[in-house]
Every structure is written in C-alpha cells, then in structure tokens.
Amino acid sequence: MTAEGEQSTVRFTVDGETVAVVGAPDRRLVDILREDCGQTGVKRGCDIGRCGACIVLVDGAAVNACLVMAFQAAGTAITTPAGLDRMLVAQVVREALIEEVSFQCGYCAPGFVMSLTALFLRDEAPTTDAILTALEGNICRCTGYHSILRGAESAARKFAAQRNGAAEGQTS
C-alpha cells in the first residue's frame, strides 16, 4: 500500500525508447501512455478492462493498459499501436483487416490489431477458435465482428502462404 501523494520514478520502454515517468505508482498505464508519452493510438474506452480499446503489448503479451498500474510496468517493454509499424507480423495483420474492410468507425481497430498481433507472435497458425479466444476482450459496436474475423482468418492464410513459400524455397 502506498502513502497518499507518494511519487516514484518508473522506467520502461515504449516502442523501443526508454521512458522515465515520475508520479504516483498506482497511476494507470493508459493515462501515462496517452498523457505523458503522447500515444493517443492507445484508446480509452471502458476503463475496466472489458472493451479492449487500450490494449498494448507488454513484453509481447496483449494487456489492457487501463488495468496496469505504473509500478507494474517498471522494467517492461511496451509496444503501442504506433510501435507496430516496425513489426512485420503487425503489417500483415493490418493489411488483411484493411482488405476485408474490417472496421467502420475505427475506434476499436488499434485494440483488435494489438490482440491479433500478440496472437500471431505466439502462434503462427492459430485455429478459428484460437482467433476467437484472442479477440474475446475486444468490443466493436459497428461491424458485427464478421468482417474482423474474416480479416483475422485472412492474416492466418497469409502467414501460412509465407511459411509454405519458405518451405518450398528450402526444398528447391
């Protein structure tokens, strides 16, 4: 338990850059990322971990930034939606979602992309059930989810084609 008004310095990386934030150790990561780091691609939604709008990758795992306190982020590597530009997996995911016209208003898009990127980082060939499980914490109020699921399955097919192409190149 921390004393009221207690300040501490928390260090972590955001999209590859070291950040040191001074403040209350129980300040929420979503607020730090948006207000101190200018990462507005991390959206605020429900503030209770149910909508997925604020999902970021913490050491490669999809995490709701509204549920992480500053002290819990200490020493971690955080990837925000802006940091996905450097990740080939995320580029394939984004491309597939765009091709399937997966989103309408787009507010939920960063959270879905983060969740799918985390999934494909740990499982190159997820089943439809695994995709559905990975997306359970994301809410979209516009699409009815069919286009998002099509985009995720398209990304899975793209990864499979890449693996098959690489395997064919090895046997030639």
- Percent of residues in helical segments? 40-55%
Mean pLDDT: 94
Separate helix tally: 6
Question: Strand count, sense and closure of the main sheet?
Answer: 5 strands, mixed
Account of the protein in words:
- This protein is of the alpha+beta class and 172 residues long.
- It has two domains: 8-83, Beta-grasp domain (Ubiquitin-like (UB roll)), CATH 3.10.20; 87-167, [2Fe-2S]-binding domain (DNA polymerase, domain 1).
- The chain has six helices and five strands, in the order ββαββαβαααα.
- It has helices spanning 29-36, 70-73, 88-99, 109-122, 128-134, 146-171, and strands at 8-14, 17-23, 55-58, 61-64, 77-79.
- Strands 2-1-5-3-4 form a five-stranded mixed sheet, with helices on both faces.
- Helix 3 packs across helix 6 (146-171).
- It is globular.
- The protein starts with 7 loop residues before the first strand and ends with a helix.
- The model has no long low-confidence stretch (mean pLDDT 94).
